[in-house]
Design a protein that fits this description.
single chain, two-stranded antiparallel sheet, 496 residues, 4 strands, two-stranded antiparallel ribbon, glycoprotein, mainly alpha, globular, 67% helix, Amino acid/polyamine transporter I
Length: 496
């Protein structure tokens, strides 16, 4: 995310890319969605879910269009460089400087009206993986680039805080209670307070913080090194995720089918919209990883339609998971982490399944935490980097990892309210990444494309929402959501 042009990687088919995008989007946010649905009401939740899915799809096409525009400009720069080398070898050095420059002078760009006709017919082909940081450097001014990195960093901090809270919370919920929190005489939906006893004199909140300390000691050191997600680890975590989701949906359907469903969700409860909005935005987040997902796809001829199909499948899955949850469990008994509702004998008799679902977040989230932490650390380094300068060893290897690791751990130490963490992260930083940044990227890339290639040039990966109205609509929506969420928080705090 912090880098510029990176290796495209091994190519894969469009349908494999569709699966990868599905796996990326459907993550931790899906586990917090059932409670948000129950709080806001089923009709309001469904309408908002469909609308936010549509908005996310629109901004996804914006990012893909910007990626194509960035590829076209880089390809044109290479063409111009080769042309100059053929005409005059002495000018090659200065041309190469221009080629690698991230923030080039817009005033020096001249319309090249004939480049599309006489150049490569695939000048807008997405062949180079240009990360969002590089696109921001190409299309934004210095203030815009800094705001971009600020937004990305805040979002990643929220991500790490959610991960750091979810793992200890799951461990506490599975292992705590002197009476046997998950024995067959205690229902999984039983509510516990943080001050309730866990083991002997140890309270539940103490157990949570002990697990948080262990989690930090085990996974925190990875922030000081470089880690890479392996292909086999991705396959394993994806397999575990889908087994867990399938089990939860099937068990909920069986209980509803047997007339054991306890849920009677309201049609609408507007007090829950704030958290629902944040959870839904967080649950559709993929824009920051699109360059890594889209670029290696071997054929991008029907990429827009395939992405639309992906979003339709994701909407269907979210609706199925959430509706089975809110009609299976009473609204008051739904937990922040939906998997924890299946850890009692009144729901599941098989102890293996109970512990698999209860500990599911521990296995899957723990593998992602070091990767997100290293990504955040690299974004900090990129934000403060000055060309030609090297960081001192202490700053590079100690300071940046510490400022990456400490804040989310402190947040997780203070609260394990996952619904609020996901809601706030999605409503603020997620709002910027999913709406504001893509809208400005596509607007600036269209402006630059016309300036460089002329007004008659057509981007082959142009978004179906090509009118400027849609860009303005996204920005107005994002600003309105920001005001609504902020006002809702202030009013809620005032009432308390």
């Amino acid at each position: 995310m912090a880098g510029g042009i990176t290796e495209t990687g091994e190519l894969y088919s469009p349908y494999v890319g569709l699966v990868y995008m599905f796996n990326l989007i459907v993550g931790t946010g899906a586990l917090t969605m059932p409670k948000a649905f129950a709080t806001a009401g089923w009709l309001v939740s469904l309408v908002l879910l469909l609308f936010l899915g549509f908005m996310s799809y629109m901004t996804t096409t914006f990012v893909m269009e910007a990626m194509a525009a960035a590829n076209a400009q880089l390809r044109w720069k290479r063409m111009e460089s080769h042309k100059e080398e053929d005409d005059d070898d002495s000018s090659s050095a200065s041309d190469n400087d221009v080629l690698i420059q991230e923030n080039y002078d817009r005033s020096e760009k001249q319309p090249i009206l004939s480049v599309q006709r006489h150049g490569s017919p695939n000048i807008f082909e997405i062949a180079d993986r240009v990360e969002m940081g590089q696109m921001a450097s190409m299309f934004f001014n210095k203030v815009g680039v800094n705001l971009f990195y600020f937004c990305i960093i805040i979002y990643l901090y929220g991500d790490l805080a959610i991960y750091a809270a979810a793992v200890p919370l799951s461990l506490m919920q599975v292992t705590c209670s002197a009476t046997g929190n998950h024995s067959c005489d205690v229902g999984a939906s039983t509510k516990y307070n943080d001050t309730d006893v866990c083991w002997g004199p140890i309270r539940r909140i103490d157990a949570y913080r002990i697990y948080l300390a262990v989690f930090t000691l085990l996974l925190g050191p990875f922030t000081f090194f470089d880690v890479q997600k392996t292909k086999y680890l991705q396959i394993l975590t994806s397999l575990m995720r889908w087994i867990a989701f399938a089990i939860m949906i099937i068990l909920a359907l069986i209980r509803i089918g047997h007339g054991q469903g306890e849920g009677h969700p309201p049609i609408a409860d507007f007090s829950g919209i704030r958290n629902l909005f944040g959870v839904c935005v967080y649950s559709f987040m993929c824009q920051h990883s699109l360059p890594s997902l889209i670029t290696p796809i071997s054929s991008k001829k029907h990429i827009t339609q395939l992405v639309l199909l992906d979003y339709v499948l994701i909407l269907a899955f979210y609706s199925l998971l959430s509706f089975t949850a809110i009609f299976c469990f009473h609204s008051d008994s739904l937990l922040d982490m939906y998997t924890l509702n299946f850890t009692g004998c009144d729901i599941v008799r098989l102890v293996v399944i109970r512990f698999f679902l209860g500990l599911f977040p521990v296995f899957t989230i723990s593998t992602n935490f070091p990767i997100i932490a290293v990504t955040l650390r690299n974004n900090w380094k990129t934000l403060f980097h000055r060309e030609g300068e090297m960081y001192p060893w202490v700053v590079d290897r100690v300071v940046f990892p510490i400022i990456t690791l400490v804040p989310p751990i402190l947040v997780a130490f203070c609260t394990h309210d996952l619904e609020s963490l996901v809601g706030i992260t999605g409503a603020y930083a997620g709002n910027g990444i999913q709406y504001v940044i893509p809208a400005f990227l596509v607007y600036c890339s269209r402006k630059d494309t016309k300036l460089v290639f002329g007004y008659g040039t057509v981007n082959k990966h142009q978004s179906p929402f090509r009118s400027s109205f849609w860009v303005g609509f996204v920005l107005v929506w994002a600003f309105s959501c920001f005001l609504f969420v902020t006002a809702n928080i202030i009013l809620s705090e005032t009432k308390l």
